Amino acid sequence: NAGVTQTPKFRVLKTGQSMTLLCAQDMNHEYMYWYRQDPGMGLRLIHYSVGEGTTAKGEVPDGYNVSRLKKQNFLLGLESAAPSQTSVYFCASSSTVGLASYNEQFFGPGTRLTVL
Amino acid sequence: QQQVKQSPQSLIVQKGGISIINCAYENTAFDYFPWYQQFPGKGPALLIAIRPDVSEKKEGRFTISFNKSAKQFSLHIMDSQPGDSATYFCAASIYQLIWGAGTKLIIKP
To answer: Nearest CA to CA, how far is B32 from chain A (Å)?
Structure first.
């Protein structure tokens, strides 16, 4: 039972390059989330998904796209990376037992992305 | 109105002391208040949580105090240990979690 895993752990991009971050969970969770974490700003929600085939925008969605083709996977894409997207990216998942807002979010180990 | 304000930004406490981290919110519709703990190089993990119908919740050395009228809640860590050194995030939820900015806690041996 690996929980939430993220690939890759580190990545350096040049401005304008594209990349995809992969998140996988083996807990059969319906809800999945992508956050970015910047110093002094806590965690900010980029996009989230309430189930396979559905996605929604969070607080800071601009410059990112997501897809949830399989229940266990949630992909975050950067089409044209910018230095402002240098951050640590976390994926999380949660179940839907009871009210979703009460449910514990389980986080992956993060991806440290640097855009030069 | 969606913000959660967390203080202090950083905190140094002697081993055995009490660590206190405070959070304030504006939106009275928030109905769930968790605290997450994050160690360097790891993702956050749920530490303890409270709902607004209780004023205090205790789990081992960790206690949440909740003041609904003041719209404030705080985390108290009793008998703080070096292993408690981490970044702590408060959050508030209505459908989605709104996160505080985090407090870096260092426990000096």
So the answer is: 6
- pLDDT at site A114: 97
Query: Residue B26 CB: number of other CB atoms within 10 A?
Result: 12
Closest C-alpha among B90, B82, B85 to residue B105: B85
Asked if B105 is an interface residue toward chain A (Cβ–Cβ < 8 A), one would say no
Chain A residues with CB inside 8 Å of B100's CB? 42
Residues of A in contact with B97 (CB under 8 A): 43, 45, 101, 105
* B37 neighbors B47 (Cβ within 8 angstroms): yes
pLDDT tier at A29, thresholds 50, 70, 90: very high
Smallest Cα distance from A109 to chain B, Å:
5
* Bond prior to B8 in cis (omega within 30° of 0): yes
The phi, psi pair for B86, rounded to 5°, reads: -175, 175
Tens of pLDDT, residues A89-107: 999 999 876 555 677 899 9
Give pLDDT, residue A100. 57
Question: Band of the pLDDT at B1, cuts 50, 70, 90?
Answer: low
